[in-house]
Design a protein that fits this description.
about 280 residues; alpha/beta; Rossmann fold; Hypothetical Protein Tm841, Chain: A,domain 3; 2 domains; six-stranded mixed β-sheet; 11 helices; about 40% helix
Length: about 280
């Protein structure tokens, strides 16, 4: 039997995680001296409230190797093989923690897979893996499928405001102030596991249109599994669903509110598309 493990950045709905019994490593989120574990003692409401109360952006850190090691020991005792699917290793040390834990439990049969993605980009891979595992398919078959999905995955994001990027130091204060006055919205693209601001557009409406145009260009007429993600921007998320379903060949569509460990970088109002060709 194959046991699939992931981390909270996969952004899958709690009911899906529970239905498939997926152990999910919590990302640590620190507000100064206060440390929280994502979805253990920090939900979205508390996350945004603490940002407003402190006026600062928290930092994040990967789950400990000890968390993964405990899961590996349980799997070894149950004679299960393990597949860990993590957030991109280029933005998090989660992949390294999962690898290090493997050396702590040599009796466990463990493979660690770098999704090279974030949010539902990782989540779709996790779902594919657990569905294949439930059908009794081998880990090697799952890994082959995940490798194909990874090569055909795309993610495009845009924030509503540069306030949080300024607070986190990801854009300079002067640069951010000028961009905010001009109402410039950056388009952030996932490329080779890295999130990069590649272009900017004027106005929020044009930013949403640009996300859909990029997705349509990437997908062509090929069916896709589409994920719409947002941070406290439900209405714009619904608008994006309408836009993508009218322009792309969407086999399935899923929408989720960004988890705090990802929303930390762009703040409320971030919206985006995460999808892969089927």
């Amino acid at each position: 039997m194959l046991k699939v493990i992931t981390d909270t950045t996969c952004n899958l709905a709690p009911e899906l995680i529970a239905a498939h019994h997926i152990p999910t490593a919590p990302i640590a989120i620190q507000f100064g001296e206060e440390s929280y574990d994502e979805f253990v003692n920090l939900d979205r409401d508390l996350f945004y409230r603490r940002i407003e109360e402190t006026g600062t952006i928290p930092t994040t850190s990967q789950p400990s190797p000890a968390w993964f090691a405990q899961q590996y020991r349980q799997a070894a005792e149950a004679h299960e093989s393990v597949l860990v699917i993590t957030v991109t290793s280029k933005h998090s040390g989660t992949y390294s923690s999962a690898l290090l834990a493997r050396s702590l439990v040599p009796e466990a049969d463990v493979e660690v897979f770098d999704s090279a993605a974030v949010s539902l980009g990782t989540g779709f891979m996790v779902l594919e893996a657990v569905e294949m595992a439930e059908r009794g398919e081998s880990r090697s078959a799952v890994l082959q499928r995940l490798t194909k999905i990874r090569k055909n995955s795309f993610l495009y994001l845009t924030p509503a405001t540069l306030k949080y990027l300024q607070m986190s130091g990801r854009v300079g204060k002067l640069q951010g102030a000028i961009a905010s006055l001009l109402n410039v919205k950056p388009i952030i693209i996932l490329q080779d596991g890295m999130l990069e601001a590649r272009e900017s557009v004027r106005t929020r409406g044009k930013a949403l249109e640009r996300l859909v145009a990029l997705a349509a260009a990437a997908a062509g007429s090929v069916p896709v599994r589409m994920g719409v993600v947002h941070a406290r921007a439900l209405e714009e998320g619904r608008k994006l669903i309408d836009m993508v379903t009218s322009r792309l060949n969407c086999e399935t569509v899923m929408m989720e509110d960004l988890v705090p460990s990802l929303a930390v970088h762009g703040g409320p109002g971030v919206v985006g598309l995460a999808f892969h060709k089927v």
